[in-house]
Design goal:
heterodimer, A: alpha+beta, Beta-Lactamase, Helix Hairpins, Heat Shock Protein 90, 3 domains, five-stranded mixed sheet, B: alpha/beta, Rossmann fold, Arc Repressor Mutant, subunit A, four-stranded antiparallel sheet, 8 helices, 14 strands, elongated
């Protein structure tokens, strides 16, 4: 769930509960107030009536005729009158004018008329239709207000929160794009909010340090393999001269073994150097390279090797994909791939190179799929002398040029597909 | 043949010097930029081995100055850097070749010989031994005046042996020279062995006087 939705959801929930409670209280109180008003009106009417009855001598006679519609007067005995308890109730009364029974608020009471010394029961009522309408209207009003408030709350808080969080989301999207090996700092969004400024500063510091360490690390690998070249050159040169002068077969074999190891070291070192150079993107001189041409050159180079390994090379597809890249790197990429395909093959196996419009696939016979083919120092089972950097270099070169390189094992063949984007 | 070695690593300089002296070269040395620039600009050499990274300046600057002075020293750059931009800049500035450290002495020698041959400073564009004649420029081997029809790699191998005649050529040096230094596979040794075997068979079947001998199983030698 998004932060903004989370916040709004929470705020809205709390506000809804609070406002529901508040509205209910308001509504109940308001209803009570209206009923109280009704009751008070009835009490006043009653008192007025009693006062009138006691003041006017002929009121009792006229009472029957003069009774207003909302009044029922009935003569009762003293005992009955004594039993009467004044009360209010909500009931239904038939209104002749309306021709129906309507809900009313009724005050029942009794009084003693001093003019004629008789006891009367009195029932005063007033229609609650108006006050019900009032309450209904009030309810609608409240509901409307309530909905409007909630909606306003959601919209306003959404706007405010998303505005306030803009620097945060901008930073987030910048960070998603950030790559340590790219060596470009993220662009920090400007903000007046203290916390976001601090966040920006903290992230910048963190990234700067990381980039420094990363660059140092890269430089270290490059420098150290670079520095190793000269001493290696010295040792190889001296040993070669020693071998030249050597008169004994056994000694010669020893020196040759040393040289062999040194050469492995040399190749490993230069591959490492190449790898870090690619990763440091220090290889300019890009030009438009016809990849098919490169592949043909590489295949020509490895012709004898394939023949020696009894591997047949098959070419498929006659497209000539080309792209802008460093020519030497293109050569290294395909020579590593093809060399790999020929070397890790079986006698009588085959290598298929297919040139499609936007991809080149190098396939070779094999027994089973290999996991993590592109990671460094991952070697095929039986060649203890290969340095295990070949495919890692392929991957790096592909990455540098935004080529997609994919491995799959299908129909007893390993397929390495280099796709142009 | 007079050669100038510009190299700041003294031990390497020494090794190269020793090696070239044994090949009857006249060797001059420089270990820093100023000496190197002075010598390169004042004297004439048949070949200059130039290390690019010198303690007090870039070897590329020496190349620039030589170019400005109109001097062609047949320069072979030897550098620990294999960065391709160095290579291009160096070759643009008139260097003849580029060799990355570490290298095999036989390879260095082949490069020097190739440069000298290109500039016709060395009358060795053709090598003759008995009934066989190898022509570097036409890339031909004639045995009793008949073209033996060697393929590209076979010729490269033979030419490398001829250039390094009477010297031990290790299998590594041969593989790197002929198939490039990216050729770093475990069974490349067996592969090289089989390729040399084929070449020897070809030479033998045509009764060529050129014979490549196997030295202690570590390399080969063409003896004149």
């Amino acid at each position: 769930m998004k932060l903004i939705n989370h916040l709004i959801w929470r705020i809205t929930l709390v506000f809804t509960v609070v406002m529901l409670f508040w509205s209910a209280c308001y509504f109940v109180l308001q209803m009570k107030e209206i009923h109280d008003g009704n009751d008070e009106g009835l009490t006043n009417l009653k008192q007025e009536f009693i006062a009138k009855a006691n003041r006017l001598p002929d009121f009792a006679e006229k009472m029957e005729r003069e009774t207003p519609l909302n009044l029922i007067v009935k003569e009762i005995s003293k005992e009955e009158a004594q039993r009467v308890v004044e009360n209010f109730k909500t009931t239904k009364v038939y209104f002749p004018t309306e021709l129906e029974r309507e809900e009313v608020r009724m005050l029942s009471s009794a009084f003693f008329c001093t003019q004629n010394g008789k006891y009367y029961q009195i029932q005063l009522f007033t229609s609650t239709v108006e006050s019900d309408d009032l309450i209904e209207n009030m309810l609608y009003l409240l509901l409307g207000l309530w909905t409007a408030l909630i909606l306003t709350l959601i919209i306003v808080s959404k706007i405010i929160i998303s505005r306030a969080n803009k620097p945060f989301y901008r930073l987030l999207s910048e960070l998603k794009k950030f790559r340590l090996d790219n060596n470009t700092m993220v662009c920090f969004p400007e903000t007046k909010i203290e916390e976001y400024r601090q966040l920006n500063e903290a992230v910048e510091e963190l990234l700067t340090k990381n980039m420094e360490v990363f660059t140092e690390q890269k430089q270290f690998i490059e420098n150290s393999s670079h520095e190793l070249q000269t001493p290696l050159a010295v040792v190889i040169a001296k040993l070669e001269m020693l071998l030249e002068k050597c008169q004994h077969r056994e000694e010669a074999a020893e020196i040759a073994a040393l040289l062999n190891t040194l050469n492995r070291m040399k190749r490993m070192n230069s591959n490492l150097l190449l790898l870090s150079k690619i990763k440091n993107s220090q290889l300019p001189n890009a030009s438009v390279v016809n990849l098919r041409e490169v592949v043909e050159n590489v295949l020509a180079d490895f012709e004898d090797f394939a023949a020696y390994k009894q591997v047949t090379v098959e070419r498929r597809g006659d497209f000539s994909p080309s792209m802008r890249m460093n020519r030497d790197l293109a050569h290294i990429l395909f020579s590593n791939l093809i060399k790999n395909a020929i070397a890790h093959n079986e006698a009588g196996g085959k290598v298929v190179v297919s040139c499609e419009a936007n991809a080149i696939t190098v396939s070779n016979s094999g027994n089973q799929a290999v996991a993590n083919v592109f990671s460094r120092y991952r070697r095929g089972g039986n060649d203890k002398d290969s340095c295990g950097l070949g495919l890692s270099i392929v991957k790096s070169i592909a990455d540098l040029h935004k080529l997609e390189v994919a491995y799959r094992f299908e129909e007893a063949m390993h397929h390495f597909k280099i796709a142009l984007s | 043949m007079k050669i100038l070695i510009i190299e700041d690593e003294y031990k390497l300089l020494e090794a190269i010097e020793q090696f070239l002296l044994s090949e009857k070269f006249v060797v001059e040395k420089a270990t820093d930029y100023s000496t190197a620039a002075q010598k390169a600009l004042i004297y004439d050499y048949d070949c200059i081995l130039l290390d690019i990274s010198l303690p007090d300046g870039s070897g590329l600057k020496i190349l620039e100055e030589m170019k400005r002075e109109g001097k062609t020293g047949n320069v072979i750059i030897i550098s620990a850097k294999n960065s391709l931009d160095d290579k291009v800049t160096g070759l643009d500035l008139g260097a003849d070749d580029y060799l990355t450290k570490p290298f095999h002495l036989s390879e260095l020698y082949a490069r020097i010989k190739a440069v000298l041959r290109r500039k016709n400073l060395d009358g060795s564009a053709v090598f003759t031994l008995g009934n066989s004649t190898l022509s570097f420029n036409e890339r031909l081997l004639l045995v009793n005046s008949i073209d033996l029809k060697l393929n590209r790699k076979e010729f490269d191998m033979l030419a490398f042996f001829v250039t390094n005649k009477n010297r031990l050529v290790t299998k590594e040096a041969l593989a790197e020279h002929v198939w490039g230094d990216s050729f770093d596979l475990a069974d490349s040794f067996d592969f090289v062995y089989s390729q040399v075997k084929n070449l020897r068979k070809k030479l033998k079947s045509s009764n060529s006087d050129i014979a490549i001998e196997n030295v202690y199983g570590v390399g080969y030698k063409l003896t004149t």
